[in-house]
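Appendix B. Worked example

We walk through a single record from start to finish. Start with the input: the chain for Metallo-dependent phosphatase-like protein, Elsinoe ampelina, length 419.
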Amino acid sequence: MSPSKVPTRFYIISDTHGETLPSSYLPKASTKVDVAIHCGDLTDESKLSEFRTSLEMLKTISAPLKLVIAGNHDFTLDIPMFKKKIAEAQPPLSQDLVEKEYGYYGQVQDLFTAAKQEGILFLNEGIHSFTLANGAQLTVYASPYTPSTNDWGFQYHPDDDHEWNIGNAEVVVTHGPPLGILDRVDKRVGSASLFHAIEKSRPLLHCFGHIHSNWGAKLMAWKDDIVDPTHFTAFDNDGSSTIQTLATLSPGKYDTAELKERKLATYQALEQNGCCTTSHCSSDPRSLRHGRDTLFVNAAMQGTLERPWQLPWIVDIELPGAGLELPEAARMLSEAAPELPEAVSVLPEAQPDVPDDALPPSEAGHVPSRKDPDTLQTGPILPQNSSSLLAQTSTRKRGHTTDDGPVERQRLKRRDGSE
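Next comes the structure step. The output line below is what the pipeline stores for this chain.
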């Protein structure tokens, strides 16, 4: 007989943009990760070389199952957008040149097909079910779509709704955040329709990236019977808490010297361990209640000028045992959860969560990113500089970014602040 609930460990990252993570940020075999998740933007310019680098990095992650979705930068996976960029290129680009840099239509998908033997699965939009090696049944809703007026991959106009058929998925993986949850740049930039879908389905875990400057995690308790819920009204603030955000780990303008020292010590301990951890199983002080709580995780890895990399997340939650119906499993008692890495011992107690829209960005969980807000292409979709081809050539170095494409393709600060 399958256990009623199975403690399951997730390793969550996003927005690596074609770069390899420091080895200290990759989970060790002793950590016993059950599922690794990459929430999109594996690349910066959607080049074959970037996908290959990302796949090699994913292969080094010690986990039996590694789930990957696309982000807006991974536009060659969005075949209609890939074709649109090629068709609108001026002057027309040589097909041989395009295929050398970006591959033929579907070549990136072929790379992921070959990577299945390494436990790497690329998820298209929709619901996916897995029986895990630990005996748990995992149901995931995945979607790469984000609201935008730009010509990147997997985007829809902000004035339009997108259909999010989440169903009863316990885990939701999207590239972008829902409105009001770890989505702040100069303003809230998440998806309103995604928020309403999440509020309706109330998964145990929703992980995403896209907004580099609002990395963090929050455990939010839902209210019942709210008419037209929003991020202001849908949550029980007394039952909700902030696990960690950039603001809890970075010195604030109004912080005392003692608080600054405490934040620095916490960050250094987490950095030494190579991850930020949180556990919400039945044996923990604050377990997740099915249909009543959702743990939100913004796992964007690309960081700030001061801290080029942000920390990956390791999250423990309980899933139903394989063969059990979800409502039945949710009513039953759990077995003990596996131990977390040592980093959990240095985390401060979770802080009660309050709406932060009235707070200045530095006090609301937003810390300016080294590439935040994102940049908006103007003029023709493609540059005339053939060396850049389908995406702006950008020189990325740790701590700063330079965009030095032609004038008609220069990027401007983007109003929605996304990456």
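Two observations about the output. Residues 5-371 form a domain with the Purple Acid Phosphatase; chain A, domain 2 fold (CATH 3.60.21.10). Residues 326-349, 357-363, 372-387, 392-417 have pLDDT under 50 and may be disordered.
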